[in-house]
From TrEMBL:
Domain N-acetyltransferase intervals: 2-164
Protein name: N-acetyltransferase
Species assigned in the record: Swaminathania salitolerans
Transmembrane feature ranges: none
Any one Gene Ontology molecular-function term assigned to this protein's record: acyltransferase activity, transferring groups other than amino-acyl groups
Amino acid sequence: MAELRDATARDLPAILAITNDAIATSEAIWATSPRTLEERRAWMETRQDAGHPVVVAVEDGTVLGFASYGPFRAYEGYALTVEHSVYVASSAQRRGIGRLLLDEMIARAEKAGMHVLIGAITASNVASIALHRNAGFSESSPLPHMGRKFGRWLDLVFMYRLFDTQSGEGSSDERHSSF
Ligand SMILES: CC(C)(COP(=O)(O)OP(=O)(O)OC[C@H]1O[C@@H](n2cnc3c(N)ncnc32)[C@H](O)[C@@H]1OP(=O)(O)O)[C@@H](O)C(=O)NCCC(=O)NCCS
């Protein structure tokens, strides 16, 4: 069974390989050119320096997946909203690792006092949408034609979980009403 731990620099080659496989073969990530080790290193350091998690799922010493969250948008008003991503190596999918990683993001975001955990998910990504629905996420209507990959338009769905944070203003109902 895979175990979770915080990522270190030694995990970067595996994180890079999983990322680049998703870029090359799927519409999950709307990048078309492969990332580099240096880009992944900078990404991880930025996340960790800001106190945000980068977590890997490891089995028998092999990294099978990773998850992270970071700022949703830069303005101060979004300070309690974080956007997450979850990636599992294609050879290790459908074994519960995605759910393990997503549950860890939920737990970390709630513990860190975040109010919203949100994922931007390609509408055709059946696996990710089912994963998030099963983990109790709500979803927006699909936003049409938000991007292109593999010669076709892609629609985008936001899936989100709200936490009962005390640092917002007004009652819980008032705070949730903007959704
Ligand atoms: C989406 C992803 C993270 C799911 O990870 P996973 O380890 O395969 O998922 P799990 O085995 O934990 O599955 C958890 C639940 O998600 C749903 N699910 C996962 N894969 C599915 C699929 N291919 N089709 C339908 N539902 C699926 C199921 O409800 C599943 O529960 P079940 O197995 O009890 O039915 C993985 O497919 C992946 O990395 N895909 C490429 C990158 C990606 O899309 N990342 C998300 C970007 S927003």
